[in-house]
Fold this sequence. Notes:
globular; 350 residues
Amino acid sequence: MVLATFARRLEPTPEALLEAFRGGAVGALSRAISWAENGHDDVDSVLDALFPAIGQAWRTGFTGPPGAGKSTLVDALVGRYAGDRRSTALLAVDPSSPFSGGALLGDRIRMNQRVLDQGVFVRSMASRGSLGGLARASETACDLLDAFGFQEILVETVGVGQAEVDIAAATDTTVVVLTPASGDGIQAMKAGLMEVADLYVINKADLGPAAALAGEIEAMLDLRDPSRPRPPVLTCSALKGKGLAELVEALDRIRLRDRDSGAMQGRRQRRALSRVRRRIGETLRHRLWTEHGWEQLARQALADGKRPDRVAFDLLQNWWESGPFGQPAPANPAQKPASSPGPSRKQGNG
């Protein structure tokens, strides 16, 4: 009955969704990810129930400039994992249509063959204007894929260049994909995107001087802090299947190293803390800007000729002095508010 509910595409209750999800219904997984994307009212209760099952999967992110062949490389890697009978999920973040908000050129279209492989799940997700290469719901979708039981979760980002560094905070391993034919030698000498890699892959090695670019990257790595793990630099041709075995081996070595050294636990703790901080910031910005009318106040202050930085400071100062958390604010913002007393034991019916 539960599976039939999903087959008819009816909106399930959270209880029905959880039952089907835990029973291995792929439709329930897809629906849960859609709930996360759309901010469904019940998605938090579903995530709370599934949270104890999260933490077993390994999340590998793939980023790099457009045209580097990330999709082809990830598609080939999914095929290798499927051949090794590793259950694998691919989350591909695509640019959003400015008209519909949906994903353009979704990777599900380019990877129709992969979805037929046993134990493979492919989901395309629109960035919806989010910067940093990921969609806002990407990490939540990874949590759901993790809880569903996938061993490998691959995340392919939009491909926006050096600003695309959010992937390093969202995954356990970050792969930067480059190509010798797109001017990446210059990019290799810059900070930003090149700083987030746990592994470099020079794809399309059959089309250009891959060895020269590999040498430039190695020279750049010589200037880094020697106490940091040195990222491997690999060359491959995903289209021809060359170098894929070496990529799988390198990824497995990084995983074992980080698990044994404790780096994995540290990164996951930082990832969780970053999500808490980001969620607080997003929620406060939305509520203050819209529900509390800060946008209108800012417009008026700017129309009166105030400097933008002064407008922001005054809004924050007035908000703090009014007691943003429902109680008088301390004189010093660094001072913690006094805890409110609990209910008296003399009150109540007991």
